[in-house]
From TrEMBL:
Family membership noted in the UniProt record: Belongs to the short-chain dehydrogenases/reductases (SDR) family.
InterPro entries: NAD(P)-bd_dom_sf, Sc_DH/Rdtase_CS, SDR_fam
The protein's name in its UniProt record: SDR family oxidoreductase
Keywords: Oxidoreductase
Single GO MF annotation: oxidoreductase activity
Record-linked PANTHER family: DEHYDROGENASES, SHORT CHAIN, ESTRADIOL 17-BETA-DEHYDROGENASE 8-RELATED
Length: 241
């Protein structure tokens, strides 16, 4: 990394959920490499705080902890998420509610509870994690696609409300990325993996770092006039019909 980018987030305080694995883990590493002090949260893995983001009151507690530890909060990346393939008729209420609880409600609560701290920052940044599933749907992904459409709407509305406070809110929408979330499907169905490789104009699946690097950009001053947007990081998959 060049010296300018290495210091781009110097002195910033960041909170990343889902940081025990995949995209969240790569994001935490990238923000730290750019100089941020990162507080990492996940159900599992080598993180600062093991917590379930759907637990009542947890999001306010996490914000208090990061502020106490780092003296403030500048960057919020709610990356914890869940996904699985389930035929629509097998979507029981509990499964649908769990997907919405992790992918939407916890994101909403964390943003809401972080606003007072972010308002104190001169560089407030929120990057939510959507999906290409917020533009299209796919069989077996009714709950997941609904949740990612919701995250995009939440992002746009929050950007309108928080803009006057200098806080930007953007949604990073990954395509097919090789992480523990997608590994079971890609291993069980090699043709599924090959389909996504063919679909991407760049001819490959994404790596967590491909996404993390763009998140770091959106968290930086370089992205200071960008807000309320969804950005596809998908190797050009969305350019194909
Ligand atoms: P991942 O499974 O590797 O990481 C997700 C992390 O979230 C895991 O470490 C998991 O423990 C954590 N998590 C789940 N539920 C939690 C909870 N209740 N409390 C705390 N932590 C919890 O998956 P990933 O691929 O890195 O996914 C990260 C984000 O990117 C998700 O929001 C996902 O929907 C999104 N996404 C991924 C892809 C992809 O192809 N991998 C594509 C589009 C969007």
């Amino acid at each position: 990394m060049d010296a300018a980018r290495a210091g781009r987030l110097q002195g910033r305080s960041a909170l990343v959920t889902g940081a025990g694995s995949g995209i969240g883990r790569a994001t935490a590493a990238r923000l730290a490499a750019e100089g941020a002090r990162v507080y990492t949260v996940d159900l599992q893995g080598p993180v600062d705080r093991q917590a379930d983001v759907t637990a009542p009151g947890i999001n306010a507690a996490l914000v208090s902890e990061v502020v106490a530890r780092h003296g403030g909060l500048d960057i919020l990346v709610p990356c914890a998420g869940i996904s699985a393939f389930h035929p629509l008729e097998d979507h029981d209420d509990g499964y649908f509610e769990q997907v919405m609880a992790v992918n939407v409600t916890a994101v909403f609560r964390l943003i809401r509870d972080a606003v007072p701290a972010l308002r104190q920052s001169a560089h407030g940044r929120i990057v939510t994690i959507g999906s290409t599933m917020a533009r299209f749907g796919d069989a077996g992904l009714v709950a997941y696609a609904a949740s990612k459409h919701a995250v995009l709407g939440l992002t746009r509305a929050a950007a309108c409300e928080l803009g006057p406070h200098g806080i930007t809110v953007n949604c990073l929408q990954p395509g097919a990325i090789e992480t523990p979330m997608t590994a079971p499907a890609f291993t069980a169905m090699p043709e599924f993996k090959a389909y996504f490789e063919r679909k991407a104009a760049l001819g490959r699946l994404g790596q967590p770092e491909d996404v993390a690097d763009v998140i770091a950009f959106l968290c930086s001053d370089d992205a200071r006039f960008m807000t309320g947007q969804g950005f596809f990081v998908d190797g050009g998959a969305m350019t194909r019909q």
